[in-house]
Design brief:
- The chain is an alpha+beta fold.
- The protein folds into two domains: about 190 residues, Ribosomal Protein S5, domain 2 (2-Layer Sandwich), CATH 3.30.230; about 170 residues, GHMP kinase, C-terminal domain (Alpha-Beta Plaits).
- The strands form three sheets. Strands 5-4-6-3-1-13 form a six-stranded mixed beta sheet. It has a four-stranded antiparallel beta sheet with strand order 10-11-9-12. It has a three-stranded antiparallel beta sheet with strand order 2-7-8, sandwiched between helices.
- β10 and β11 form a beta hairpin.
- The longest helix has 25 residues.
- The two termini are about 15 Å apart.
- It is an enzyme of class 2 (transferase).
Length: about 375
């Protein structure tokens, strides 16, 4: 008997998955109408589901005790709390958008590491949405699912997130990175296959507790919005790289100037990385990773000692480039390395962490993988 049948007494009608993501480059550019370049990971949220006809949704998780049940008709922002707010939010936003999803029994399973900043929340929303749609035979554009998932996280869960995570979870393809222009709302699939070039992309979870992340994220966003208002532009994407020095001179606050410098130079780095990858010059992307980390450390000030030690150690051990990835204040680094040097770089990071009395880091496979889909 399956785990699903043990909980609900019947076998499921199907299972749907949505992956986590890692952003290659383009940090804190999404809410500035900028550019991002994520890949989807093999690690995913899996939602096994069966339809029911009483207008109720029941959710269970392999990582939580018990079953949480709610009425679809009663859903409103804040009506379901804790982890179940995410599947409830997916159901709420689909109904708000006019989709007749009906009731369901859901079992959530995950192999995404908790607290690593690999966007498990967006994956949970997307996996639940495609499961609820799939149960009723409803097919909608993946980008629309992503937009609805973002709306659910913003309005139902109450997290002011951008659209990158959901778009990566829904729209990435195997062997590619997703070049996503937030202002234009356009995507391109950029070839990204490190193994074909004798390379590997390491993702290392530094196991640092996320420190002040909510308040600091809000502060960074506010500084960017303040700068855009002072410069008379709708968002910092409108500040041209070639005009950066002039724009900085017009800002009165030094902290705000540094925030702006990061965003504008980071958008240029995404452009350069995409062009190099399209040209088959993946090794040359490494220095852009490192420059991004320096900018995030010095101008945006969102790194922590574990992230900095991991990046510095990876570079010293021969990585072609390395940077923190995600929102900052914890999470993961990525490092572009020769495939033959993978073990050497990981060992060096582990030894450096031991010397600093940090928690032992972990690593995971960063093979560029496809977006959300039905699996059975």
């Amino acid at each position: 008997m399956s785990r699903f049948a043990e909980i609900y007494g019947t076998e499921p009608d199907g299972a749907w998955r949505a992956p986590g993501r890692v952003n290659l480059i383009g940090e804190h550019t999404d809410y500035n109408d900028g550019l991002v370049l994520p890949i989807a990971l093999p690690n995913r949220i899996l939602v096994t589901a069966s339809a029911r006809t009483d207008g109720k949704v029941a959710v269970a998780s392999s990582g939580q005790d018990g079953v949480i049940e709610f009425e679809l008709a009663d859903l409103a922002p804040g009506s379901v709390k804790d982890w179940a707010a995410y599947p409830a939010g997916a159901a709420w936003v689909l109904r708000e958008a006019g989709y007749d999803i009906g009731g369901a029994n859901l079992l959530v399973e995950s192999d995404l590491p908790s607290g690593a900043g690999l966007s498990s929340s967006a994956a949970l929303l997307c996996a639940t949405a495609v499961a609820l749609l799939g149960l009723r035979g409803l097919e909608i554009d993946p980008a629309e699912v992503a937009r609805l998932a973002q709306r659910a996280e913003n309005q139902y869960v109450g997290a002011p997130v951008g659209l990158m995570d959901q778009m990566a979870s829904m729209c990435c393809t195997a062997g590619h990175a997703l070049y996503f222009d937030i202002r234009a709302m356009t995507t391109d699939q950029i070839p990204f296959d490190p193994a074909a070039d004798g390379l590997a992309l390491l993702v290392v979870d530094v196991k640092a507790p996320h420190r002040h992340v909510d308040g600091e994220y809000a502060a960074r966003r506010k500084a960017c919005e303040q700068a855009a208002a002072e410069l008379g532009v709708p968002a910092l994407r409108s500040v041209a790289f070639d005009d950066l020095d002039d724009a900085l001179a017009r800002l009165s606050d030094d902290v705000v100037r540094r925030r702006v410098r990061h965003v504008v130079t980071e958008i240029r780095r995404v452009e350069d990385a995409g062009a190099l990858m399209q040209a088959g010059r993946l090794r040359d992307v490494g220095p852009l990773f490192t420059a991004s980390h320096v900018s995030l450390r010095d101008d945006f000030e969102i790194t922590v000692p574990e992230l900095d030690v991991a990046v510095d150690t990876a570079l010293a051990a021969g990585a072609l480039g390395a940077r923190m990835t995600g929102g900052g204040f914890g999470g993961c680094i990525i490092a572009l390395v020769e495939a033959s040097a993978t073990a050497t770089v990981l060992t060096a990071i582990e030894q450096a962490f031991a010397a600093h009395s940090f928690t032992k880091p972990t690593s995971l496979d960063a093979t560029p993988s496809p977006g959300a889909s039905r699996v059975s």
